[in-house]
Amino acid sequence: MTAEGARLVIDLPAWVAEAAVPGRAFRDDQDxxxxxxxxxxxxxxxxxxxxxxxAVFEIGSGKVVAAGVNRVVEAANCVLHAxxxxxxxxxxxxxxxxxxxxxxxxxxxFTSCEPxxxxxxxxxxxxxxxxxxxxxxxxAMAVGFEEGPVFAESxxxxxxxxxxxxxxxxxxxxxxLLRGYRDSGGPIYNPDxxxxxxxx
Amino acid sequence: MTAEGARLVIDLPAWVAEAAVPGRAFRDDQDxxxxxxxxxxxxxxxxxxxxxxxAVFEIGSGKVVAAGVNRVVEAANCVLHAxxxxxxxxxxxxxxxxxxxxxxxxxxxFTSCEPxxxxxxxxxxxxxxxxxxxxxxxxAMAVGFEEGPVFAESxxxxxxxxxxxxxxxxxxxxxxLLRGYRDSGGPIYNPDxxxxxxxx
Lengths: 200, 200
Prior knowledge:
alpha/beta, 200 residues, 8 helices, homodimer, 40% helix
């Protein structure tokens, strides 16, 4: 019996790795958010995916560990939100299923848009201790993206488990990007979207 | 500039693909749940990961599309819950970011244990229209696994978006498996767990 089809490959576009070279240090929240917004912009411009960017940094040094961009439609994989990619590549780099490790630096996730239900769950599992959000859930939903079952209690829950959430960093800029994406006719994909049948 | 480390490979163990050969038909909910519990058991027995199994089926024909087992510790990747693997491989097989497609069969996700917050979000994004659960959240938490921010409203939310949830299929059997895993000293990994440093 063969195990045909039993491998799944997730490629980070080379330009993402180049824009967020692991080990490069960023100064503050504004700079880190500017990076993930730039990743989202570039992702749209290149036609590589949805208007979302994310990155994991080491707290303290400000060094990038890994970055991600949305690849859902292009990779035919609903899991590949920017945050999921950044978290998975960060764990691959660190070599552990958790980014919390005694005696090692803590980590933070920056995302150009508030995490959906899936990404918020993964944020908790990932071991990051800080979550920094650009655009808000309502900014994403205003242009037609679903965000799933996330409630005020969800944030209380992750706070009780050691994840601090910070909002409003470059929100206006991040929200403008989402509106621009919609206005330029970018695909709004949701589970009930008809998959594109051409050009992919 | 190279894009070193910009590929992530997820391998489904060959024995999973063999136990759940895509296209093989299962008769009813009992049989489908028996399969995913067997996957969880085998995963423990082989030391491949945590005590969780899942599979996506075509509704109507009962054919397996893809299966998954937990690989978090072994793959150093907190995303690789059984459900996430089954959903990603199912989408790879179908070739779309959503398993809902006009004129095509609908799909259902069977899981040996209630989905965590991340997996519940992915269930919604995946396009399955039915979620069938063995062990409950409290069965998992009773042995020490975190489940994340999932509330009664979470299920109301996914129901409103077309995902029906069915509970209690072989629950006692699925919960017994979790207790047996804990009693035999299986690792209970959570974000604040110290990663194993040997044998992996």
